[in-house]
Each structure stands twice: as C-alpha cells, then as structure tokens.
C-alpha cells in the first residue's frame, strides 16, 4: 500500500475512516483490539508519523490562518486566492484569520486549527515560528527545505509545464522569438524560478536564444522601460511573456514611451483572471487563484478532520486562454 491514506486503511480493515483516525490519534471510543489492528496495519503499510496529525488538538477554535508574505502581498493574484480560502473555509464551518509578518514572535497559533502558507520561504520568521506549533500546515506551492513531518499537504501549480504551454500558444499565433520578463526568482520551488526553468526548456527545444529580463515585483516606469528596451535590443525578439499581470498591464504604455509600437510586439502574461485578457494579448495563462485558494483550504480542512498518514499532494490546473477572436 504505497503512500496510504486513512481511507485506504479503513477500506483494508473494513471499518470507518473515523475509527481509523481516532485509533491513530489515540482518541475516541475505540476498542484496544481495534486500535492495535489499526496501528499494525498502518505500520505494515509504511505509515510515516505526521507530527501535526499526532499533536492535533481535540478542541476546535473554529478558525484557520492564511499567511501571505509581505514581499508578494500586493500582487493581484493574492486577493482572489484569499477569497477562495475564506469561502471554502466557511463551507467547513471555519473563519479565516489573516496573519501578518508581525506574527513571528507571537503565541497566537493557539487561536487557529490549521495554517495555509502561500509562496512562503523557510527563512521567513513567521514560518520559523510556526514549525514548533502543534498544527496541520498546508502549503500553496512547495517550500524548499520545509520539513516533511510538518506538512499536512501541498497544492501547487506546475508553472514550468504551464509556461511551456503558453509559449506554445504564443508560437501558434506568430510569436517566433519571445523574451521573458519576470520578477526576481526566490528559492528553487518559487513560481518565478519555475517559470524561468520552463522558458529555458522551451527555448532549448526550439533552438531559440533565451532572452530574460528580471525586474523588481513593482518596478518604476524607468526600470520597466529599461528592461523592455534591453529585451528588444537584439532585434530578433518579436514578443514578450510577462511572469505576472501587474507589470503586463503597464506594458503597452511602456512600449510606446520607448518608441515601440505595441501592436508590433506580441504580448502574453500569467493572469489572475481571464477577465484581464484583452485584445493586446495573443494569449494568457489564467492561474485561477480563487479556485486555487478553495482547493488549498479544502485540503487543510480535510487534514484537520481526518489527519493524513502522509502529506497530501494536489495539482491545481492553470488554463491557457486566448482573446475571443484569437481562435
């Protein structure tokens, strides 16, 4: 039984998943004989103890927490993500608490039943303060170096793969040599680094010279114009893929200011909603952040009610979208 779940054990033993969960936690009215059978089956199946599950408290606070690091908090992606988390949490009877960077030195984790980390990094003081807490943690996107025994689950977008797909869509609409404009990559699992990897792999397959410009998450007009001018300076770049919508929305005006006609440079971007796709784009990648937040919250709520034997893992699908008249 590879990577068993409580449902797998329940089916194998012919008992309910609630009984299995209570037996593993040492709670509830479970006969000692049944508890022994559950523990033996779990060990035989390769059960790896999850400290968050072992230490899960019996009393519920009625709330879960969401932590969005300050360095990305103002990006348009994160508001619909948080709304998705809040709505899904409400379906399970939980309120949502938003955690700030100032929470690193607090003991306030006692006021929530579980935590979602989105695009966090191990060096973050808030993440470090959370590790000793007896709480299930679900990450939206993998966190490099995060202890496996502290993760109840991970939900992620396969950014490298999806980057290749939007580049294919751009190529099908006449983009022969796209350049990538992206924010500074974080750790090895950060979405920006995955986009860079996807772009480089695509260029290698197509035998195209990679052209990348890294700018700050919220560049000034001068910084953005300089990056666009550098990307287009070689003369062979005919299109631009933006790693985040917040900068892509400023691209047309910036291109005009540097003497480039926007219509002659094909544009595409990762988007927080396909509603932000307009006729200026040949393609977009809708990350569906609201649905991403829902899925992540559902995994956390499930891990609170039924602690997993091994960390859950789900992939959230992003969608390549085209303008209405883009075919």
From TrEMBL:
It holds the Pfam family LacI. PROSITE patterns: HTH_LACI_2. Keywords: DNA-binding, Repressor, Transcription, Transcription regulation. Gene3D superfamilies: 3.40.50.2300, lambda repressor-like DNA-binding domains. InterPro entries: HTH_LacI, Lambda_DNA-bd_dom_sf, Peripla_BP_I. Residues 4-58 form the HTH lacI-type domain. SMART domains: HTH_LACI. This is HTH lacI-type domain-containing protein.
């Amino acid at each position: 039984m590879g990577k068993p779940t409580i449902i797998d054990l329940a089916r194998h033993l012919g008992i309910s998943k609630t009984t299995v969960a209570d037996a593993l936690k040492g709670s509830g009215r479970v006969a000692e004989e049944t508890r022994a059978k559950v523990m033996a089956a779990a060990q035989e199946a390769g059960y790896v103890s999850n400290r968050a599950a072992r230490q899960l408290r019996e009393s519920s606070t009625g709330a879960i927490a969401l932590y969005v690091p300050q360095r990305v908090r103002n990006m348009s992606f994160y508001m619909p993500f948080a709304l998705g988390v809040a709505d899904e949490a409400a379906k399970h009877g939980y309120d949502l608490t938003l955690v700030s960077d100032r929470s690193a030195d607090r003991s306030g984790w006692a006021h929530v039943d579980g935590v979602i980390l989105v695009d966090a990094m191990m060096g973050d003081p808030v993440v470090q303060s959370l590790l000793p807490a007896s709480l299930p943690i679900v990450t939206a996107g993998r966190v490099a170096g995060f202890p496996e025994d502290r993760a109840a689950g991970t939900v992620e977008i396969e950014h490298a793969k999806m980057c290749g797909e939007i580049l294919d869509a751009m190529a099908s609409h006449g983009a022969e040599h796209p350049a990538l404009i992206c924010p500074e990559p974080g750790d090895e699992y950060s979405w920006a680094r995955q986009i860079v990897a996807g772009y480089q792999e695509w260029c290698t397959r197509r035998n195209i010279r990679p052209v990348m410009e890294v700018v700050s998450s919220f560049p000034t007009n001068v910084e953005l114009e300089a990056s666009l001018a550098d990307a287009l300076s070689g003369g062979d770049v005919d299109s631009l893929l933006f790693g985040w919508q917040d900068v892509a929305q400023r691209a047309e005006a910036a291109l005009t200011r540097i003497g480039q006609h926007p219509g002659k440079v094909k544009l595409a971007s990762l988007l927080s909603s396909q509603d932000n796709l307009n006729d200026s784009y040949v393609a977009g990648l809708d990350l569906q952040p609201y649905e991403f937040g829902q899925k992540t919250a559902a995994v956390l709520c499930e891990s609170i009610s039924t602690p997993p034997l091994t960390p859950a893992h789900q992939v959230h699908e992003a969608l390549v979208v085209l303008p209405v008249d883009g075919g």
